[in-house]
Amino acid sequence: MPIIRKINKILIANRGEIALRIMRSAREMGIKTVAVFSTADRNALHVRYADEAVCIGEAASSQSYLRGDKIIEVAKQLNVDAIHPGYGFLSENATFAQAVADAGLIFIGPSPQTIEVMGSKLAAKESAKKNNVPMVPGTPSAITDIPEAKKISKEIGYPILIKASAGGGGKGMRIVENEEEFEEQMERAVSEAISSFGDGAVFIEKYILSPKHIEVQVLGDQYGNIISLFERECSIQRRHQKVIEEAPSPILTPAVREAIGKAAVEVAKSCNYYNAGTVEFVMDTNLNFYFLEMNTRLQVEHPVTEQITGVDLVKQQIKVAQGEVLEIKQEDLQILGHAMEVRVYAEDPRNNFLPDIGNLATYVRPQGAGVRVDDGFEQGMDIPIYYDPMIAKLVTFGKDRTEAIERMKRAIDEYQIVGIETTLPFCSFVLNHEEFVSGKFDTGFVGKYFTPAVLDKKLSESEEKVAAALVATFLGEKKTTKNATKSNLITGKNTKQISNWRKNRA
């Protein structure tokens, strides 16, 4: 039986907006927090917010946020009770989770054994299959024999998908349209899997045409109680990574919603899961769904689930980690309204969404009813080149999907970011697109409908004046030069500020 262990102090083994988000819930629970940071994050908001903060290394994550040994050492020195890994970095590292437990500390997440099983796509599928969870047709195990793999692919039927067993984020993944290109794509997938994960194991599965990416939030305690907190729609993606999420999905029927929720719970039961986790599915045009994988951590998009359920997932994580019985029953939950999230990345959507690192010369958050901003930056700060380029998660909530979308469009319009390119213009384009509004979109949306040209809108004369005024303000903060004319405000080295403003207004 689990032992009740009261948590009085938590070390957050992460940075930025997720570190802040965890700290805020901890503070509401009367729990002290410890921030760890790299030299690049010395002035970061999460460092200032925490009760205590310790520098653990240089800017590179390999010398700081990935140094589990240093993180545990700090935790022990400061008499920390538990470590929350957030997402990314060490959050799904079974070795780290075990080291935390071996040090006598509480890991706020699932068991190391569960992380290890679900960290392998093949092991995860094998585990889920035992509980009769729907699976995409494919190979039951890793395969390296090319003739045999070609034979299986032919039986499954093209197109097929070759995926790295240890993969994620679209790496080690290849779509194969026909038998002629199989060998080349197989070799590329294996090579990329080795390069990215040190593991060349790949498997083959049927490629679902016009797929939707649907995921289900689950929460379990250490006594075997597991619930589903409904689904999230995550099909708007670039480079196989999400940009816009919403809850609930606009296309699920009540019957399908109940079925996919039960399937997610079965996946969690198959690996004795506890704490917060996400079960991901691919769904075809007939609403048939198939298990993809399980993420054994809090997801970036968890706020939309919190908005429609009224459940603070971080607080629940902490309570479960303390050994408490889950206080929420499945029958207690209902969907309240609709929530939308856009990820505000420092990326250039005109240049294949490549990172655009720089200084936040202007940074003004949107406000008002139904608007939530989870971020870790403020005006004047630099976006570090060393980490994921996400600036913020912009979340809106409404009584229905239409209101959530309209609020998001208004919030994006209010969001002022000058100095870098962001994904806000792209998100605005998506929200106004008929395919998105209808709910019929799939994971191929970007490839089908988006080109940089759709963002290039000419500013009106009044907008040009506003842009010039914004740049004038920026220059006034950076220089002592006075009486700058409009002509020199919109030329030369100031062009980027004007350009950024224009694109963020598109």
Q: Could you give the topology of this structure?
A:
Elements: E1 9-12, H1 16-28, E2 32-38, H2 45-49, E3 52-57, H3 68-77, E4 82-84, H4 94-102, E5 106-107, H5 112-119, H6 121-129, H7 146-156, E6 160-164, E7 173-176, H8 182-197, E8 202-206, E9 212-220, E10 226-238, E11 241-247, H9 254-270, E12 275-283, E13 289-295, H10 302-309, H11 313-321, E14 338-345, E15 347-348, E16 354-355, E17 362-364, E18 371-375, E19 390-398, H12 401-414, E20 416-418, H13 424-431, H14 434-438, H15 445-449, H16 461-478, H17 486-489, H18 495-505
Parallel strand pairs: 1-2, 1-4, 2-3, 4-5
Antiparallel strand pairs: 6-7, 6-8, 9-10, 9-12, 10-11, 11-14, 12-13, 14-19, 15-16, 17-20, 18-19
Question: What is the residue-mean pLDDT, rounded to a whole number?
Answer: 90
SS-derived structural category: alpha+beta
CATH superfamily of the largest domain: ATP-grasp fold, B domain
Kindly identify the CATH topology of the largest domain.
Answer: D-amino Acid Aminotransferase, Chain A, domain 1
How many structural units, i.e. domains? Answer: 4
Question: What is the approximate shape?
Answer: globular
> What would CATH call the class of the largest domain?
Alpha Beta
- Strand content is 15-25%
- How many E-type strands? 20
Alpha-carbon distance between the two ends: 57 Å
CATH architecture of the largest domain: 2-Layer Sandwich
Rg value: 23 Å
Please give the count of helices: 18
Quick one: biggest sheet? 8 strands, antiparallel
What low-confidence regions span 5 or more consecutive residues with pLDDT below 50?
458-462, 480-506
In which range does the helix fraction lie?
25-40%
Widest beta sheet: strand line-up = 13-12-9-10-11-14-19-18
